[in-house]
Design brief:
The chain has one helix at 65-72; strands spanning 3-9, 15-22, 26-32, 35-42, 50-56, 60-61, 84-93, 102-111, 114-129, 135-146, 165-184. The chain has 185 residues and is mainly β. An eight-stranded antiparallel barrel has the order 1-4-5-7-8-9-10-11. A hairpin with a 7-residue loop joins β4 (35-42) and β5 (50-56). The longest helix has 8 residues, at 65-72.
Length: 185
Amino acid sequence: MAETTTWQIDPAHSAVEFAVKHMMFTTVRGRFKDVKGTIEVDEKRPDRSSVNVEIGAASIDTGVADRDGHLRSADFLDVANHPSITFRSKRVEGAMNKEGDKFKVAGDLTIHGTTIEVVLDCQFEGTGKDPWGGTRGGIRATATIDRRDWGLKWNQALETGGILVGNEVRIELEVQAVKAALVTA
């Protein structure tokens, strides 16, 4: 008998962040504020677990309004035509039995209307009871992507050589989820 636990991602206590080089020598960081999703954990077969996340592309925030506006434009995310960024897992490799366990989640990342498989390197941060009687769990995940693969190709050549915006984007996730239900099938 399979036991699957559903966890709802808590957007108030989760961070979907990114970092990219600017002018080839400094790093600009940003985050997405509108994040929702579920994590389905198969207690006996963790490899059958799944993750589904939706991010509001317009919620991008780098702390600079003009830059955020440019990132929302057709030069980058084109949020008018592609309002969501999604991640749908395809497989989980490794277990999440105890705090510190490392595992991988492979899935389809859709940005700007293009879907490509990405592997997230994850670490289970543990679980605990919250003050309201619920159970929460934490996961940290990272990946590095090339933004050009998703059609985000805008750039500007620098007079001294190189480019204005780096192509490599580091993704850093800190996810807290609330246990919603245990389903036995």
